[in-house]
Request: fold
Amino acid sequence: MRARKLSVWLVAGAIAWAGAVLSGSVAMAADPAPLDDAGCLACHDGKKGELTITGANGKPRPLHPVAADKFGKSVHAKLKCVACHTDIVDNTSPHKKADVPKADCASCHQGLWERVQQENRAESQKGLGQVAGQIERYKLSVHAKVNADDKTRNNAMCADCHDSHAFVRLPEGSPERAAWRLAAPAACGTCHEEHLEEYTTSVHGKTVLEKKDPKGAICSDCHNPHGVDSTSKDEVKLGIVKACSSCHTANAKSYVDTYHGQITTLGYANTAKCFDCHGSHGILSPSDPKSKVHPDNRLETCKKCHKEATAGFVTYQPHAHAGDFSRYPQVWLTTKFMIGLLAGTFAFFWIHVVLWLYRESKDRKEGKARPLVQVDKIGIPPGKQFQRFGPWWRLGHLLFAVSLMILTLTGMTLLYSGSSWAPVVMRMLGGPAVASIIHRVCAVIFTGVFVVHLIYIIITIGGKWRTFKIFGPDSLIPGLQDLNDVIAMFKWFFGKGPRPFFDRWTYWEKFDYWAPFWGVAIVGLSGFMMWFPNVTAHFLPGWAFNVAVITHGEEAFLAAVFLFTVHFFNNHFRPEKFPLDVVMFTGAMSLEHFARDHPLHYKRLVETGELQKYLVDAPSKPMAIGSKILGFVLIAFGLLLLGLIANGFWGSVTH
Reply:
């Protein structure tokens, strides 16, 4: 009995074990084969043509082909299919889906970038970091925005532009990169049909599509391929100008010299850019009758911004430069003249400064420095000083100085727009619109002071024209005596003669006086021409603007640098005056200083008994302190401007 029961249990156990084995075998047979690339390529090898399968939603979808040979050469060759297609968990058809996102280039590359940074794998950081930056730019681009027609996708995904299964690096100059450039416009044109059609007719399009020259401009040369954004944004406009400049270097340099280019260089997009005049996707040769810059069409192009533009605008040369006399003779001649003027003026006066400093310093070391003249024996009451400048002269000088310095700041910020400090200053000024108002207000003040002074001189001299001596000692008109003084001064510089004595006005003071007559005429007239372009173009040809820009900038440079070097030395920095002479702020100077600096004038006034008419009380202590503070502030501001100009000038020369 016992043996029988045991047999039953053994048989039952065997049957159960066999069933388990059989059921396990069935289950194992039902499980899918492991996912591998070979299994994927069995269907996606591209040999099945346009095979369409039915997806999980019941709708047909194409079977994406993958060329194994191209994939093997791609940057993704070492990755398994499921490394990107993480949503694929089954190799049956249709695929079962895991609850994970579809293949996403951005999240994959960002994850790799984060891991590389954590592991500090320097050898991989450069390439992955570049891709991470491209992804960040893409997220902010118009391509990353949801498509207006198909809400389920973005305007453009990575795979729309890149073949992820055949993506390879294209070294510069390689045949592969050349082939990619030639094919790029058509790829962009799959979405941007109208732009492609326009591009096809352009000089860029013909170069690429007809001549098969990969050096021609393609879409990605002007539009950031990973950061494509709306062309209405300022940063995009500025980026396109930069892209144009990378190929058209000569025209870019001449463009930067114009007001349009200067404002653009400062980072503002409110002036004409390359595409405003030449067009964008359909740029044509200027000789093409359909071109926007063809002479027959140029006026209409200008009128887009300058509504009241006249025929004079047509002959303006936005890319004129001084290197081509045959094409731009006016610009060539004007530039050469201004260079000669600057070189001659600075050569003479800087040599004059150096020699003066040398001789005066040497005389001091040898004990030959001029002592103050003792005037206590002529019966002058103590506390009296000589009044050299009246209140109106001093006010005019102050307005002249302040307005000129502000003009220099606002003007040189444009002239040296490419310097590192110019954008900072422009932002501090409130932008180009505010800066232009400041500049013009100061220009009116500057010119107004000059005109008022001119009227004053005419009235003053007119009242005593019978007795006034044009070349007399009280006249500011240079005469033969000034030439003799210059010669005597240079003899003293070289130790060949004594230091000359001067009358009321020295020859350098006369130069300081007459220089603004030339400066105001040149700077003022050229400034007026640019301020009112429609009026100018009504009477003058367009090249007059080119001449006005050159003369305005170069003459302003001459005036500013001369004042902050030569004028500052003559009046403040030479050893006898250092660090500051306040006579132009207080109007008065001690008799001792007056007798030393202008001995002939002093002697003449003493002999005629007219000295008493010019005696005034010494400035009060607050007046004296305030004058020194004002003087030091103006000198400091002037030296700051000189430093900015030197930096901007050096940068423009070296670049």
